[in-house]
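User: Good morning. I'm curious how protoporphyrin IX containing FE would be positioned relative to this chain. Could you predict the structure with it bound?
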Amino acid sequence: YWYKRPKGFPPGPRGIPFLGIIPRLGNFPEKSLFKWSKMYGPVMSLRMGRKDWVSLNDYDSIYKALSKQHTKFSGRPVLPVFAQFNQGSGIVRIDYAALWKSQRKFGLNTLRGFGVGKRSMEERILKETTFLNDWIRSQNGNAFSPVVVLHKATASNIASIIYGKRFEYNDKTFNRLIDSITGVYDDADANFALQCMNLAPVLMHVPPFSKLNALILEKYRTILEICQQIVEQHKKTFQEDELRDFIDAFLKEMYEGNAGFTDKQLLHYLRHLLGAGTDTTATMLNWSLIFLLHYPEVQKKLRNEAMKIVGRSTPVKMTFKSDMPYTKAFIEEVLRYRTIVPLAVAHKTNENSELNGHVIPKDTAVLVNLWAVHNDPDYWDEPEIFKPERFIDDQGRFVKSSHVIPFSLGPRHCLGEQLAQMEIFIFLVSLIQNFEFVPDPNSGELPPLDSPSSGFIFTPPPYTLAAKEL
Ligand code: HEM
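Assistant: Good morning! Here's the predicted structure, ligand included:
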């Protein structure tokens, strides 16, 4: 099997027998892929374990595959670590078929129905900022790590949609939930080991991988158990004409007997929303804070704009955003420079396809390198430099680039993009309005701007800072 590849298949590195190129992916697989793509072309293949995958490494090929040929490129490969638990349920990893279509449509409508993109969601996020700001205030100017509290703030927003209520930050169940959502995708070593198990499933039974697999399963079980308790409470108080949240809306579909709306599907859907919506947005806010520490002049510009447009104590509204070009440019540059999900979620071809003259057979797993688009010198001047000004024209206006695609493209693009954009803007401006962020006075160094990503969520290393109340 080693040398045989389908006729016309894209060229690419093979690596070593059984493992393929896995050992050569390194701490930043997205960078390795981009480097190889300069040798093999933007549409290239790679031997991953015993299978040949395809990787897309420029905007053109990603757009042509995910948008133009979306019916062919929107599937999801079966990855053993996830499949042992998901069993074809949820939203993130189910194939591009009838179940995904009905669940995606339901998800979008329900998020909208419970306020995403509207004033009511703005108010929920604003309420969360008051708890977050109070927590930061309670640190009394001493150094602290914002990592866990930002996860709590973003998870609480998701909880308010799916569960109708926010969680208190010291609530025991909530802390168990946060503990179970974090610790794998945001840990580079664990994430690398997880990807190895997905590509060479035999490892799932071999120490030390088997220990990690057991830990992942335990975390998934805990999330499901907590979601199950919440669903049971909802069932007891459910009223068809008064839908309180995502769970009620789902129960209504289920009680009407609509295909795909089952207890199991609901639990996995909730788990995916909590998982996909917490780490990502919290990570984006963490990187933003780290940039404020590195570039005090950028922090000053953001504050000047916030004070001028919003004011010191006016609640932040999304309508302010269009008058805040520097803030928009800052957010866009963080999303570009620290691509939060560098390789998106693996796609799969559901039909035989052709891309850039190459043949890609049905059922080929496809890695979409979003990081490559954000760091391609063909699109960006000095991509390795953090520069919000690249999105500002000489009239001081914000200029959008179609080459910033942190939420990916096509029908499988991030389901929570609108929610994430609301959270990022409101949290960020509210933090800037209330605090000046400075380096931890006890640490001689600033947090590094790079840390191993190992391919899923690009999280910063653990860090601390201090916040001076304004
Ligand atoms: C900064 C924040 C976020 C970033 C950068 C981000 C990015 C992404 C990316 C790159 C994908 C994969 C797209 C693909 O497969 O091509 C994705 C999928 C997804 N995201 Fe997000 N995301 C963020 C926040 C959220 C939030 C807040 C939610 C909660 C509702 C969410 C829910 C999802 C779901 C459910 C999917 C799977 C969609 C599907 O397979 O149909 N994300 N996200």
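The chain is about 50% helix and 5% strand. The radius of gyration is 22 Å.
Let me know if you'd like a different ligand tried.
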